[in-house]
Amino acid sequence: MRRRLLVVLVPLAVLLVAALGVPHSVTLAEREMQETYVDRLGDVGRFASLAETALSSGRTEALQQELARYHELYGIPAAVIDTSGAVLLGPARAYQEAARAEPALPRIVTAALAGTRSEPSGEWAPWDGSALVVAEPVGRDSEVVGAVVTISDLSKTRSRVLLQWAQLAGLGLLPLIALIAVAWPVSAWVLRPVRELDAASSRISQGDLTIRAEAEAGPVELRRLAGSFNTMMDAVENAVQRQRAFVSDASHQLRNPLTSLRLAVESMEPHLAGSGRPVYEVAVDEVKAMQRLLNSLQASARMESIRTASPVELDSVLATRVDRWRALTATSGRTLAVDVPPGLRLLEPTGGLGSILDELVSNALRLSEAQVVEVSARTGGDVVTIAVRDDGQGLDASERAQALRRFWRSPRHQNVSGTGLGLAICADLVGAAGGELRLEDGLPRPDGSGHGFAAVVALPVVRD
To answer: Do residues 123 and 33 touch, judged by C-beta distance below 8 A?
Structure first.
């Protein structure tokens, strides 16, 4: 988040520096060019005046020496040309070499021979490589007999401009560096409470309702936000604790009356005869079902009060369960198949992964009337998938959509012992660990009439 703040501040600072420095830099470059152009105009004006006198009198030796000395001293070829463009006076070879590299020369010379002074050639930008060509007519109006032309290399001028621009850029960076130096600690001070709120939200999403944010650091607005966040979490935690306490207390308080009721009903057995016995048996079954329901509610309240998932080796979980599953399936004349690769590490839900798998295998044996139960595991990406499949009755799509709801039971299983809480509790615990419990089609039935039932648990992988 600090990086995002700097991403906003740095371009603003650069724009500020550019807004302050670029116009000045442009003006500086234009002034340098203008000064150079004015100097050349003065030179060619003087040479044009001397050339007019020299050409009219025929005494050109002094002007020739002066043009040669000017080229030797400044490195600028200055030549007097006639109306055909031929060099009359000056360093002819140096002038011709420089003229070949300047495409603007013919235009400027033509204008000078026509008696007018053209605009300066080339560009003022330091990255342009063209020379400055300046021409002055020799003579006046229709009596123009030639022109004085100078071709000035501007590399030194451009170097000075670039140096001055670099100095301005260096000075412009100072406020940028100062801004970053101030923004870095300020952003840390501002964003630290935001990071703590983000970390607290992440912990809460994993089920830890005891976490609180630091409400004594950062700007006033963020401190108020952290205080409101903590107040909200106090209310949420208190509500959840009251709910769990109510479920646990209600289950506990109802246990003794139910036990007394069961004893009272069972004590009536010797006194019953004839049509009263079926009613007695129904009453005993209902009392037992209520006791199982209370036990499930208490277990759910206890497991939901602990929301810390932990890494576990799947091999170690199965080592304590597979033998018991095989014994159960062998006793009922069924087959258990286990296909789990070694070395899988995953995040174990609260209450233990073994308890969840026990519930899924138990459902397959009790509810599906399966002949084969298969436990398999696969890893893909960041998830380990554990599937318990059978070839029994299964559930259709509409029933699977409701099977994870608390207290829901299939109409076919109303006479089978159970509370309708097992799958719902397992789904909650798996979800709290960052995983997912899905219900799918299972193994093909032996008679080919469809598929059985499958419960698939997907949990995050734990990397070494």
So the answer is: no
Closest by CA position to 358, among listed 457, 259, 428? 457
At 398, which helix (H) or strand (E)? helix 397-402
How far is 426 from 304, CA to CA, in rounded Å?
11
Distance of CA 373 to the CA centre of its chain: 44
Dig out the tokens for 121 from the structure.
Answer: 């050639």
Residue 161 CB-half CA count within 13 A: 24
Q: What are the tokens at 165?
A: 């621009």
Determine the Cα angle at 425 with ends 355 and 431, to 5°: 95
Query: Encoding tokens for residue 260?
Result: 């007394």
Question: For the chain, which domains are there?
Answer: 1-161 (3.30.450.20), 220-302 (1.10.287.130), 308-460 (3.30.565.10)
- Single-letter amino acid code for the residue at 380: G
Distance CA 368, CA 383 (A): 27
* 55 strand-pairing partners: none
Q: Which of 125-129, 171-175, 263-267, 348-352 has the lowest mean pLDDT?
A: 125-129
Work out the burial of residue 437: count CB atoms within 10 Å of its CB; fewer than 13 is exposed, 13-18 middle, 19 or more buried.
Answer: buried
Q: Is 382 helix (H, G, I), strand (E, B) or coil?
A: coil
What residues does 376 pair with on adjacent strands?
A: 339, 387
The token pair at 414 is 């109303």
Rounded CA-CA distance 214/327 in Å is 54
Distance between CA 302 and CA 199 in Å, rounded? 26
What is the tens place of the pLDDT at every residue in 230-247?
888 888 888 877 777 776
Q: Are 433 and 461 in contact (CB under 8 A)?
A: no
The pLDDT tens digits of the residues spanning 193-227 come to: 888 888 888 777 766 777 888 777 778 888 888 88
DSSP-assigned letter for residue 445: P
Two structure tokens written together for 405: 């709801």
Q: What are the tens digits of pLDDT across the range 1-12?
A: 444 444 445 555
